[in-house]
UniProtKB/TrEMBL annotation:
Gene3D superfamilies: 3.30.450.40, PPM-type phosphatase domain. One of its GO terms (biological process) is detection of hypoxia. Its cofactor is heme; Mg(2+). This is GAF domain-containing protein. SUPFAM superfamilies: GAF domain-like, PP2C-like. It comes from the Bacteria. Keywords: Coiled coil, Cytoplasm, Hydrolase, Iron, Kinase, Magnesium, Metal-binding, Phosphoprotein, Transferase. Residues 228-445 form the PPM-type phosphatase domain. It holds the Pfam family SpoIIE. One of its GO terms (molecular function) is oxygen sensor activity. Residues 1-31 are annotated as: Disordered. Residues 32-59 form a coiled coil. The lineage of its organism: Bacteria, Bacillati, Actinomycetota, Actinomycetes, Kitasatosporales. Residues 61-211 form the GAF domain.
Length: 455
């Protein structure tokens, strides 16, 4: 019997289970839609909290950490204003106050206002470090009012930040951008951030302690300049600002030799760790002994130092510039040799500057068979010789020549200053970016020549 395909299709359709449309957000009950919306918001807020914790954890410098905590809290609850009050050691009053969110006009209005000391609602949070949420600040019984020029604030959320069980400071947030009071979810997310912030603050404080200890150790390795009369002298050392680079190999030294000349040395051991600092101290001490041995040109002193380092140490590669300032009839003379180091800069009393570019020798620790040449340059009374390391002039985003030009211009602009002031300015305003440690040694010839004649 022939099959009627149309009848068969109709029969299959009749017995096939009917397909029912799945739920859609348009037809879902209002309760389900609200639950999904709340779940989505919770997930977004959790992600924002994780992002905020990561953001504050990336910082190590304490001032930057504190500002980042305030900014992260403001972003989490969409607050217009935020502040962090750091408490004193006793935890009784605000020692430092870090406000964010003020515009230029508001900052100007509060320029002469004393920082909050912890009275009113701020004082309540200090005395009782539980979360504080206020919907009407002006009418709260603990409110102490605002100083003249302070922007109006109606809502407040405050939580304590604890470090090792002690309250370090209080985080304050005011005025949600949508005008609504802070709610339970705001409080919960800021509390969570405050917990992470306490750990970050502790890390930053430990980092600060380690850095201070490293700087102190480094300075102990560097000499206090002796009396180098008739020459004037000053020096400065600054560690790198990059995390983990607080020990370094930059160093300087200066001393009067038995023949009346003044020896000056600047050096840079490769590395930013304890090994580099130890090698720096070892190299400096060896060089002092070699300088006192006999009257020897700088190149031969560097050669003997290189051979000694090769023979009895495993010190890393080191660059150096060794110079002698000595009388030369009615003037002064600079005799110097370099081991792969930057050239000296001579700044005259009338404000001109020139680098003593000359053939450099190889760095120490490379090849003891290669000779290093000596160079000479006449110096007039009142001339300043600057020996420096690359931390003063190198910048990863600029050519070295640009850094050298900027450094020379800075030195020229302040040529008339006493040497200690000149060194401080050069170390503070140098064209580098602080990624490397730096050392600077400055020597100035007397205002008269060796025979007492003025320039």
């Amino acid at each position: 019997m022939p099959v009627n395909e149309d009848n068969e299709d109709r029969e299959l359709q009749r017995h096939r289970p009917r397909e029912t449309a799945g739920p859609s957000w348009e037809t879902a009950p209002d309760g389900v839609t609200e639950q999904v919306r709340q779940l989505s918001q919770a997930q977004e807020r959790m992600q924002a909290l994780l992002d905020a914790v990561m953001a504050i954890s990336r910082k190590l410098e304490l001032p930057a950490v504190l500002r980042q905590i305030v900014r992260a809290a403001m972003d989490l609850v969409d607050a217009r204003y935020g502040a962090l009050g750091v408490l004193n050691e006793e935890g009784t009053r605000v020692e430092e106050f870090i406000p964010l969110g003020l515009n230029d006009r508001e900052r100007q209005a509060l320029a002469d206002v004393e920082l909050p000391q912890g009275r009113g609602l701020l004082g309540r949070l200090i005395a009782h470090p539980q979360p504080l949420r206020v919907d009407d600040v002006p009418h709260h019984p603990d409110a102490a009012g605002f100083p003249k020029g302070h922007p109006p604030m109606r809502t407040l959320l405050g939580v304590a930040i604890s470090v090792r069980g002690h309250v370090y400071g209080d985080l304050y947030l005011a005025e949600r951008q949508d005008g609504k009071p802070f709610d339970d979810q705001d409080e919960a997310v800021v509390l969570a951030l405050a917990g992470a912030a306490g750990i970050t603050v502790e890390n930053a404080r430990l980092y600060q302690q380690v850095r201070s200890g490293a700087e102190h150790f480094q300075r102990l390795l560097l000499p206090r300049l002796p009396d180098l009369a008739p020459f004037d002298a000053a020096a400065v050392y600054k560690p790198a600002t990059a995390p983990g680079h607080h020990l370094g190999g930059d160093w300087y030294d200066a001393l009067l030799l038995p023949d009346g000349a003044c020896a000056a040395i600047i050096g840079d051991v490769v590395g930013h760790d304890l090994t580099a600092a130890a090698a720096m101290a070892q190299t400096r001490n060896m060089l002092r002994a070699l300088l006192y041995d006999r009257r020897t040109p700088p190149s031969l002193v560097l050669d003997r130092l290189d051979a000694t380092l090769h023979a009895i140490t495993d010190s890393p590669v080191t660059t150096a510039c060794l110079a002698r300032l000595e009388p030369d009839r009615d003037r002064w003379r600079l005799l110097w040799s370099t081991a792969g180091h930057l050239p000296p800069l001579v700044v005259t009393a009338d404000g001109t500057a020139r680098y003593l570019y000359a053939e450099p020798g190889v760095p120490l620790g490379v090849d003891t068979s290669l000779p290093r040449p000596d160079h000479t340059c006449p110096l007039a009374p009142g001339d300043t010789v600057l020996l420096f390391t690359d931390g003063l002039v190198e910048h990863p985003e600029r050519p070295l020549d640009a850094g050298l030009d900027a450094f020379a211009a800075l030195a020229t602009a302040h040529a008339g200053l006493p040497l200690d002031q000149l060194c401080r300015i050069l170390a503070a305003r140098h064209p580098s970016d602080g990624h490397d440690d730096l050392a600077l040694l400055a020597l100035r010839t007397p205002p008269t020549g060796p025979g007492g004649r003025h320039r």
